[in-house]
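Appendix B. Raw example, untouched.
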Amino acid sequence: MIYRLWGRGCKLKKDKKGQVISELREEFDKAKALIFTDFRGLTVAELSELRRLLRKENIKYRVIKNTLAKIALEGTPVEVAKSHLKGPVGVAICYDDPAQTAKKVLEYSQKNDKLKINSGVIEGKFCISDDIKAIAELPSRKILLSVAAGTFRASLGKMAGVLRATLSTFMYAMNSLKTKRNG
């Protein structure tokens, strides 16, 4: 993978940098959410624990060079975050459910106060840390979709009842008119 390309001292040759940038750009293109964190003070064991927690939810956590990340962000849906890459940055990359990603990163940052949430990009929109905390409080995508489906189903049921009542009233009126003319 691209992150094993650099050795001690993090010196990459030009062709390797190009490879890293193209692979990062591919990841950023597919991402529904990126959450930028400051990981200073975390030990290797704590970073491994964070990665394990996120990997269970199909979320990648990467520590990347800002200069390479800025180049890779150009022309992607998450380009709005380019100016906010300062200092050591770790990125949680989500391909599925942005709310779940925000929950998991926030959960770990509450457990380990060394991890700070700086900002993020969720479905193309730049978010500050307070926005990410608000998104983390939202129910998961599956729950929101099931609530929406239930609402639509209830609305359709009510509409069917209203139409049935209108049709029944019309039929009673027609029967009454028929009885009046025959009688």
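End of appendix B.
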